[in-house]
Amino acid sequence: EVQLLESGGDLVQPGGSLRLSCAASGFTFSNYAMSWVRQAPGKGLEWVSVISGSHGSAYYADSVRGRFTISRDNSKNTLYLQMNSLRAEDTALYYCAKTQIAVVVPSTYFDCWGQGTLVTVSS
Amino acid sequence: SYVLTQPPSVSVAPGKTARIPCGGNNVGSKTVHWYQQKPGQAPLLVIHYDSDRPAGIPERFSGSNSGNTATLTIGRVEAGDEADYYCQVWDSSSDRGVFGGGTKLTVL
């Protein structure tokens, strides 16, 4: 059974940093691109970033480019999101999501999701 | 950047058919996926590749995609189908994932 368990969410002040983790199990982690998707309170889904399975190619939403860095450790079956220069508008539930293939393709979708970790940016 | 547009809400009586549109510029040339999200839960993939159902998704769920509109259709709607539904594409021109704004399905 595929399982994704996010952690690292917290209350942080504007301008601060946070690192989210997503521990994966139940599948060959390195064979799949992985993504972060966020959802602000009461709002819709917003795609944040994706990283390929082994080559490390990464893509970002314009709203986080230059502030967030996605990475992965295939030896630990773990996905990360380093979040710097946090803003109030980054407040959201952050989901880790598995894609259907190792590389990012025009048909990329998210077939399994974790339960999310909450990031609150406030002074 | 590419935009997907969904109506904020759709209402349907039990046993009837619900249709949730997802509009985008020439979205028919892209591959559309659909997610269901119930309150307090993570999203669940219900349709991929425009019209395919993942394992475990009832046959009542179907999808289509042509021109400027993709549509999620839910037949014989049940109270348990009440949820938010999101369409999604990958925009290859900008290498970005894109979600529609979501549609709240209310079962009357």
List keywords for this structure.
heterodimer; A: 123 residues; mainly beta; 7-stranded mixed sheet; 4-stranded antiparallel sheet; 11 strands; 49% strand; B: 108 residues; 6-stranded mixed sheet; 3-stranded antiparallel sheet; 9 strands
Question: What do you see in this structure?
Answer:
The complex is a heterodimer of chains A (123) and B (108). Chain A is 0% helix and 49% strand. Chain A is mainly β and 123 residues long. Chain A contains no helices and 11 strands. In chain A, a hairpin with a 5-residue loop joins strand 4 and strand 5. Chain A starts with a strand and ends with a strand. By secondary structure, chain B is an all-beta fold. Chain B contains no helices and 9 strands. In chain B, strands 1, 3, 4, 7, 8 and 9 form a 6-stranded mixed sheet that branches. In chain B, strands 2-6-5 form a 3-stranded antiparallel sheet, with no helix packed on it. In chain B, a hairpin with a 2-residue loop joins strand 5 and strand 6. The mean pLDDT of chain B is 97. Classes of the chains: A mainly beta (123), B mainly beta (108). Chains A and B meet through strand 5 and strand 10 of A and strand 3, strand 7 and strand 8 of B.
